[in-house]
Amino acid sequence: MGLEQVYILIAIGFVGLFQLFYWIFFMFRISKPKSKLGADEKTSKLPPVSIVVCARNEAENLKRLVPALMAQRYPVKQVVIVDDASEDDTEYVLSQLHSEFSDLYYTTIPRDGSFHHSKKLAVTVGIKAAKYEHILFTDADCMPTSSEWAMKMMQGYTSKEGTQLVVGYGKYAKAPGLLNLFIRFETFFNAVQYMGFAKAMRPFMGVGRNMSYTKSLYEKSSKFRKNWKIQSGDDDLFISEVGTRKNTAICFEPDGQTVSEAKKTWKDWSAQKSRHLTTAPHYRWSVKFMLGFELLTRQLLLWGALVILILNRNITEILPIVTLSLLGVRWILMHIALGLAASRMHEKSNGERWMWLWSIPADIFMPWIQLAAWITGYARKSSNRWK
Questions:
Q1: Of 252, 369, 330, 250, nearest in space to 22 by CA
Q2: Exposure of 55 by Cβ count < 10 A (0-12 exposed, 13-18 middle, 19+ buried)?
Q3: Can you tell me the distance from the alpha carbon of 236 to that of 242, in angstroms, rounded to the nearest whole number?
Q4: DSSP notation for 151-217
Q5: Between residues 208 and 348, the one the model is more confident about
Q6: What are residue 233's phi and psi, to 5 degrees?
Q7: Average pLDDT for 195-201
Q8: Backbone phi, psi, residue 126, to 5°
Q9: Torsion of CA 254, 255, 257, 263, to 10 degrees
Q10: DSSP 8-state secondary structure symbol assigned to residue 226
């Protein structure tokens, strides 16, 4: 073996070992939670909660969501709806819902053609309107998976002392088509990753469809001022700013999730994804390094294996063996980690096995699809409106 091939072998070994470390250290972090409060136990330890929803042109969705929120089995709660300059019948629907649920609170941000604002303003208004210290967020186009959604999420505050932030899982409903399959896999994969980071190092993102934090934590933050001009990523940037391993809990129990409808066309998904990707440069440097280096080494190992196999006539036999072995072990770890997470998050329910069947194709093509979405969104230069 020549010196050049020794260097290649060392590089491949380093890339492969980093990938194995990444999957073992981060992606295996999801373990079955041990809630201190069972379904039949007293709920006196749970703090009062204000459930905040920011809605723009969501009249039909609010007709379904508000009754589901009011029906949550929770000892002390408040439901706050922020009508963010809607142009449909949202205000009328909220008025009708208020007559049915007298304790529903809603407020309206008036329309102003000369001033376009992001979702951050609506979130800020909702926080100010909340009368309790603990705030639970979801979106108007979501639905809780059970009447114990609020209880499961808020149990995160009782799981360990000092918790001020709970990161939940907001999944997408199953529908026919390859796009829906891809969106659900990507959402699941991202959740396993950011929840793993929250347990292993520090949280860097979450989803506004299902997350909670305290007013005190919000008051200690920049209150979105640092990122006011960024069009999306309110939740990611807030969590990245204030979240730590000690003050953050995660909730992925099936009854503590939310579900919403995924985008129906690649164009709509691309626009949504490109907005979300604009937040990545604003993560902490340690998170950016780990995420970027993982993506780089993943591609080097995958495509390096392909190149070595093509050129295997001109190199020693040990290089293909080592490269394919590392790639094979990584895929085995990936299957095990995602399989366990899928079971615990009920993504294998009803006999569905797509996590196993699609993890390798998604592993190969997902980064390139995400890159295409980012390029498309950058070229489109979409506006600062949050919906």
A1: 330
A2: buried
A3: 10
A4: HHHHTHHHHSTT--EEEE-EEE---SSHHHHHHHHHHHHHHHHHHHHHHHT------TTSEEEEHHH
A5: 208
A6: 75, 25
A7: 92
A8: -65, -40
A9: 80
A10: G
